[in-house]
Amino acid sequence: MKKQIALITVSLLAALSASAQNVNEKYCNNEMCRTCERTPICEMGEGVIQPDLDFIFGTCPDTPDIPDFEVKPEEPQLPEIDTPVLPDIEVEPEIPEIPDVEFPEQPEVPELPDEPDTEVETPDTSLAGQVLSLVNSERAKYGLSPLTYDSTLQGAADIRAVEIKSLFSHTRPNGLSCFTVLDEVGYSYRKAGENIAYGQRSAKEVMDAWMSSEGHRANILGDYDYIGIGVYESGGTIYWSQLFSS
Fold first, then answer.
1. Of 30, 193, 216, 235, which has the fewest Cβ atoms less than 10 A away?
2. Contact 160/196 with Cβ under 8 angstroms?
3. Could you tell me what percent of the chain has a pLDDT over 70?
4. Which one-letter DSSP state was computed for residue 15?
């Protein structure tokens, strides 16, 4: 058995030697290299038969050795960006200017006119006061404005109430007009009127007598503004007078 193995080994080596010779003759004798298509040079010399299978095909002199490693593509390096640092700036809010406001001038308050020289008063519940109330009541029936009691005009009416005891007339005892008494007390007027009576015991009684007389009623309802009422009693008799003015 060992002899058979030895024979097989010798036969195989002989076959490989013959095959190597044929290859070297084909590829090393100025034939083109199958890899680079150039004339190869056997490492052991041209045309030399070398049974070592590593040198059967020869080596291309211009083919560089390429190392076995994986080449990773170089990643591009991004340029460094220098980010500027902004300084801290404190921004103060701008305060708008307030425009000057001009206030309109206040209108001047007109001065009140001076009060008239005559003092206006309201009489009490005396006989004169009762007559004034009845006069204005009659005027109201006709839609007329009430008359105002005037103290200066009242003084003139009091004088006339005394005078008619001596002379029951619109003429004064001195022979002058009854209206001259207004000048005597310093009373200014535009127009004037007079009513007189005596013997009546109350304000209502004397007013009824005057309103029954056309001339006296015309004065009571006339276009006047002020009135003065004189009442004078002597010997149980009452003397009445009315002076009207505007």
1. 235
2. yes
3. 50
4. H
